[in-house]
């Protein structure tokens, strides 16, 4: 069937969920069922034979099967048992059908018929189905709405996979590479895998591997590995009373403290808290990874801002139209909800309800000033950056001066905030200790400081009724990103490091750092080995370790706090002996621009600077005082 036609039909269809059911087939049991509505059968753990409407496959071969209404679904030979979900729905097609279909009658027939979806994202399908089941069973209007949003995300992933397979003839080599990587990850997830070691095993470059995963899944190989490890960790937590340290080691994390932090970041619960909730019966056995980009069921940039989503308002491939529709749907239902004339804002500390759209917004992290300014909204007040801000984009510089100063993000000036009389305060976990005091001053929401700025921008766009401006800002950025990515193709392998001399050492920003990810994930540049598989977003290395960095290019973050230290380092023989320095491939960058003001205004300038550095035939070493 033509996936392009199916994408068009789904983008115009009116979809309603009828029911979501969870089944558990014991060894030797059979399941014989006549579908009362269209449904997706999603297989979980276990193996079985599936027959429906001419489709005969195993649960392992096809983790998702679409079943036509009125068709018999027969599951047998469940030698090891089988867990599964039935997602029953009604999809009504418009009349007349949308234009652009290559074969309208055939397209409608295929839209209803039974078909199987090959493996590739099986774990993600299971996680998304579990999320939908958990939400559906709550029987609340808002959670039912959220379930519908998750179904759109489910279908989006399914169609993306089918579209990828339809073009398999052109991408056989890349698919084989990713399939081999996935098999190796599943088999060896507990081993100390790195991007370099995985690429070496596959006999390709780290950059090729990065770009292959980014194109197919929207995230890096290492993020995919994290998702696999955490899925295994959850199963181990469910099975017995093994110590967390033992489980951490079994899934590839010798440092149990780091594992616990990572688990909580991705699921919202600590490993022990997860186990306790399971024991109490208050948690589904497939808790979602709320911030994990491997899970498109979470409202994340993977779904809302796909890597190649840059033409939502232009004619193009059907995929773009569908992603545009999905983007708007998710933004309206997965982030903020407008009901009964009120605005409900989910955030890290619960849900805030506002009677009206906020007019005077105070931000306690300056990255939000950038994001709001890009939407044409000037915050009434903002905390200030701890390093110099001279040299920021003009729009930022001019507006910063007009905002009330509210101290720093580490020590906000609560008195100045109270005098400002805002009708909304936006804070992060930096203000955890004074959150109660903030609530006493004004309605307050706590956002995730490390969330991708593109997602936060969409949240703000919905909050202040500037959705169009938010999407246009994303279009502009993504188009620029794509141009740079294309410009870098065929330029050979370049290892790029992002460093900041500080406190007598050198802070190396790892592939987990939000700006470094722009280099490594979005642009597919290779990180140095020392920047890969580190527990945090940065690590401190001494000057003596610079030669081990093995970077072809250096981006050096410079500001008023480290300028003297950087100048002294530049005079050292060790610094001068680095290949990047000898070849003049060092760029000194504005610290506040690159790591502080994390939004469209700053990030567009960062992209310009990267382009100037990497696309010019020769980039000279900027003098420290000019950075």
From TrEMBL:
Protein name stated in the entry: Helix-turn-helix domain-containing protein
Subcellular localization(s) per the UniProt record: Cell envelope
PROSITE patterns cross-referenced by the UniProt entry: FE_B12_PBP, HTH_ARAC_FAMILY_1, HTH_ARAC_FAMILY_2
Domain HTH araC/xylS-type: 179-277
CDD domains named among the record's database cross-references: FhuD
InterPro entries for this protein: ABC_transptr_periplasmic_BD (IPR002491), Bact_iron-sidero_bind (IPR051313), Homeodomain-like_sf (IPR009057), HTH_AraC (IPR018060), HTH_AraC-typ_CS (IPR018062), Tscrpt_reg_AraC-type_HTH (IPR020449)
UniProt KW keywords: DNA-binding, Signal, Transcription, Transcription regulation, Transport
Family affiliation: Belongs to the bacterial solute-binding protein 8 family.
Gene3D superfamilies from the UniProt entry: Homeodomain-like, Nitrogenase molybdenum iron protein domain
Organism per entry: Paenibacillus enshidis
């Amino acid at each position: 069937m033509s996936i392009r036609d199916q994408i068009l039909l789904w983008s115009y269809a009116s979809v309603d969920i009828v029911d979501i059911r969870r089944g558990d087939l014991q060894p030797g049991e059979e399941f014989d069922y006549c579908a009362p509505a269209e449904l997706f059968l999603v297989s979980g753990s276990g193996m079985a034979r599936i027959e429906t409407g001419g489709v005969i496959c195993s649960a392992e071969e096809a983790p998702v099967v679409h079943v036509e209404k009125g068709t018999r679904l027969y599951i047998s030979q469940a030698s090891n048992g089988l867990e599964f979900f039935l997602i029953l729905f009604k999809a009504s097609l418009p009349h007349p059908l949308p234009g652009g279909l290559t074969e309208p009658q055939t397209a409608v027939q295929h839209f209803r018929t039974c078909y199987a979806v090959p493996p590739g994202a099986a774990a993600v399908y299971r996680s998304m189905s579990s999320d939908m089941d958990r939400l559906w069973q709550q029987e609340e209007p808002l959670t039912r709405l959220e379930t519908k949003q998750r179904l759109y995300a489910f279908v989006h992933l399914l169609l993306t996979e089918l579209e990828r397979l339809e073009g398999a003839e052109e991408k056989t080599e890349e698919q084989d590479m990713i399939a081999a990587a996935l098999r190796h990850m599943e088999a060896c997830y507990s081993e100390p895998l790195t991007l370099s070691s995985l690429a070496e095993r596959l006999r390709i470059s780290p950059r090729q591997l990065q770009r292959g995963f980014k194109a197919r899944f929207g995230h890096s190989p290492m993020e995919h590995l994290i998702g696999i490890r955490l899925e295994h960790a959850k199963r181990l937590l469910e099975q017995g009373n093994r110590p967390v340290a033992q489980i951490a080691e079994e899934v590839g994390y010798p440092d149990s403290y780091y594992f616990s932090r990572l688990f909580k970041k991705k699921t919202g619960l600590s490993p022990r808290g997860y186990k306790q909730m399971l024991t109490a019966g208050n948690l589904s056995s497939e808790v979602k990874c709320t911030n994990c980009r491997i899970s498109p069921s979470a409202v994340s940039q993977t779904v809302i801002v796909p890597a190649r989503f840059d033409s939502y308002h232009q004619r193009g491939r059907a995929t773009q139209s569908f992603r545009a529709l999905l983007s708007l749907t998710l933004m309206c239902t997965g982030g903020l909800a407008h009901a009964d004339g009120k605005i409900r804002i989910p955030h890290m500390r619960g849900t805030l309800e506002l009677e009206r759209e906020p007019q005077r917004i105070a931000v306690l992290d300056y990255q939000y000033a950038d994001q709001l300014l890009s939407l044409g909204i000037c915050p009434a007040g903002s905390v200030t950056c701890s390093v110099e801000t001279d040299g920021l984009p003009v729009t930022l510089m001019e507006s910063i001066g007009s905002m009330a100063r509210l101290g720093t993000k580490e020590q906000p000036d609560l008195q100045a905030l109270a005098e400002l009389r805002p009708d909304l305060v936006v804070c992060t976990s930096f203000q955890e200790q004074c959150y109660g005091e903030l609530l006493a001053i004004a309605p307050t929401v706590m956002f995730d400081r490390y969330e991708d700025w593109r997602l936060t921008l969409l949240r703000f766009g919905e909050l202040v009724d500037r959705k169009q401006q938010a999407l246009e800002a994303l279009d502009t950025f993504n188009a620029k990103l794509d141009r740079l990515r294309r410009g870098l193709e065929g330029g050979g392998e370049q290892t790029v490091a992002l460093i900041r001399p500080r406190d007598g050492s050198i802070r190396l920003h790892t592939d987990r750092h939000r700006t470094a990810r722009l280099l490594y994930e979005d642009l597919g540049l290779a990180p140095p080995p020392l920047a890969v598989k580190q527990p945090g977003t940065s690590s401190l290395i001494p000057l003596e370790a610079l030669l081990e960095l093995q970077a072809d290019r250096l981006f050096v973050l410079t500001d008023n706090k480290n300028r003297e230290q950087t100048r002294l380092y530049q005079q050292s023989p060790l610094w001068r002996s680095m290949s990047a320095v000898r070849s003049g491939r060092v760029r000194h960058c504005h610290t506040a621009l690159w790591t502080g003001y994390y939004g469209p205004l700053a990030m567009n300038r960062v992209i310009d600077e990267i382009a100037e550095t990497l696309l010019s035939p020769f980039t000279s070493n900027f003098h420290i005082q000019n950075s």
